[in-house]
Amino acid sequence: MSGSYENVRDGIETYIAVREEWIGDAIEVLTGDRNTDPAVALQERTMHEEGVARDDTLGLALTVEQEQSLREIAGRFGLGGHLDIPSNAEHQVQEGGKPWKVEAQLAISKGPGTRSIVMCGWPGRKLGPDELGYLDTKYGIAPSDEYEMVRQLAELQEGFVADEADEIQPFGYDIHNNHQLVAEATGQLVKIGSIDGIPVLLARIDNDWVEGIDEQTGQPKRKPENRPDSAAMMLFISEVLSATGDETGSIGFNTSSTYASRAIDTVRASLRAGRNFRVGMYGRETLRNTGAPNIPAESPINQLPSELRIIYFDKLQKLKSELQT
For 176-187, how does the pLDDT look when each residue is reduced to its tens digit (9 = 90+)? Predict the structure, then answer.
């Protein structure tokens, strides 16, 4: 192995170790013992009101000092930011989600160095009543699913110019082979136009469906399987860029500061692709400016343990495993 590769590995090992220490600090605040099993300490919580939890999930009762400490630790990961943290990357990938979140993602995407904008959307997610009401009131549109919605929001951006016809790109990914690039026009990546001259592409999130059981109702429920996560989508875009001659262009993945765990996905993607990946995070002020409903002044404290759980189990442990392979 080359010295530069070993330096990258050493840097990532340090990155993991520091964040595991931060997780230990959070566990100590939550339980009084940093050696408590993270699976127990980092459960989803609800706030206590006058000593009574709001619902039947595990309540969270903290002193003022403990809450301040937990917010400080969460802030180390980038959670709960008020202000935008743009990635300033050349290729801007939008995570998708609820319409006001997509608008906020777009708001931090159009920098002077932006060379492409990629809108990720999942046809398997039908929009909720709150989303449909928002879109109808603001724009008079009624998309049927997230994929259709992200397209329409891109088309509504100031400066958008549609292409004469959609241009299906000659690339896709295989959901049955670790989302590897395929040199075929699968329809998973489509150019639809431009915003102020910046090409806009749609990236479709595909998956299989398996029959399962809803844990709350006990009723049959279809569940997605083999759906690419944010790291897989960043790698897909990276491989498309490499296949078209761009080996070095930076890729930014835009999300909310609520989901700062995505930052670890950029490290995972960098480990596999050797490209500069970054995370852009919009703050609550930008989200509020979209007209989004019910934006709290601060991230609810009861959300932080579950987000730290995602960081630890779904992100850090996955990164550690990939580093060993």
Answer: 999 999 999 999
- With 0-12 / 13-18 / 19 or more C-beta atoms within 10 angstroms meaning exposed / middle / buried, residue 4 is exposed
Sheet holding 52-53, edge to edge: 52-53, 46-49, 59-60
How many domains does the chain contain in total? Answer: 2
d(CA 25, CA 72): 10
Query: 124 and 74 in one domain?
Result: no
Pairing of the two strands 220-225 and 59-60: unpaired
Determine what percent of the chain falls in helix, strand and coil, rounding each to the nearest 5: 40, 25, 35
> Where does the chain show beta strands of DSSP type E?
46-49, 52-53, 59-60, 91-94, 116-121, 160-168, 172-174, 180-182, 189-195, 198-204, 208-213, 220-225, 251-256, 277-282
- Within this chain, do residues 278 and 307 fall inside the same structural domain, yes or no? no
Model pLDDT for residues 113-136, shown as the tens digit of each residue: 999 999 999 999 999 999 999 999
pTM for the model stands at: 0.76
